[in-house]
Amino acid sequence: MKHANIRLQVMAGAAMVASAAALADDKITLSFNERPPYLIADASGAATGLTGTPAAEAFKKAGIDIAWSKVPPNHQLDVIKAGGPNCAIGWYKTAEREQFAKFTKPLYRDKPTILLANLNFNGKDGEKLGDILASKGVRVLIKEHFSYGPFIDSALEKYKPATTISNGTSTQMLQLVGANSVDFMFVSEEEAQYLVEQSGLGAQKFKLLHMSDMPKGDYRYIMCSKQVPDDVIAKLNKAIAEKRIK
């Protein structure tokens, strides 16, 4: 019986190796959600932008074929959790996500996050985030299943402000800010101006607030399913390492 168990373990191990080898030869489906200036779809359906371009370059340099897939963020998480030859661009790395995904080296580092607020909000530029979140009656707009990085996530958990959860696009979320349905949303400084321009509401309806205690922006990564082999991640890391992200 002992010998039989050993044979079964060897066979199972061989099957896993064979499966990983087969997966390594497969084309990776690379998902993204259009979010300028980070991710912009070109005429061919491929992603460009601050994270899209370096991701495409990494796969090309690594010699890994990809199939582009434009997918909403929540569905990207479902696809990664389901396994298979699937990766997604521009995600933050969190302890929760590391339970079901693998991450490459960082593609890009954000500038510090700012608050994109409506003009009626009495918050001031240069305040601390905790003071803002602790303000009486403050209303914060949060994207569903989205991490804003450890600093903001922990502050939201600590102060527990009134929140509205949205599964809409960043532009749709900005409409809620402009309509005074909420006080503000968190955005990267890179995308703030673009969002205001795309809202069609006019820059005069919004104000940008920089927090004095906001740390440097978080890193954005390529996130892959656990079934994507380590050698694929290693090839991508080697290609990404040529661009030093500080």
Main sheet attributes: strand count, strand direction, barrel closure:
6 strands, mixed
The helix fraction, in percent, is 25-40%
Instruction: Report the average pLDDT across residues.
Output: 88
What is the multimeric organization of the chains shown?
single chain
Tell me the domain tally.
2
Radius of gyration: 21 Å
- End-to-end Cα distance: 56 Å
Summarize the structure in words.
- The protein has eight helices and 13 strands.
- The chain is of the alpha/beta class and 246 residues long.
- The protein has two domains: 2-109 and 219-240, Periplasmic binding protein-like II (D-Maltodextrin-Binding Protein, domain 2), CATH 3.40.190.10; 113-209, 3-Layer(aba) Sandwich (D-Maltodextrin-Binding Protein, domain 2), CATH 3.40.190.10.
- Strands 1, 4, 5, 6, 7 and 13 form a six-stranded mixed beta sheet that branches. It has a five-stranded mixed beta sheet with strand order 10-9-11-8-12.
Structure characteristics:
disordered N terminus, 6-stranded mixed β-sheet, alpha/beta, single chain, D-Maltodextrin-Binding Protein, domain 2, 5-stranded mixed β-sheet, 246 residues
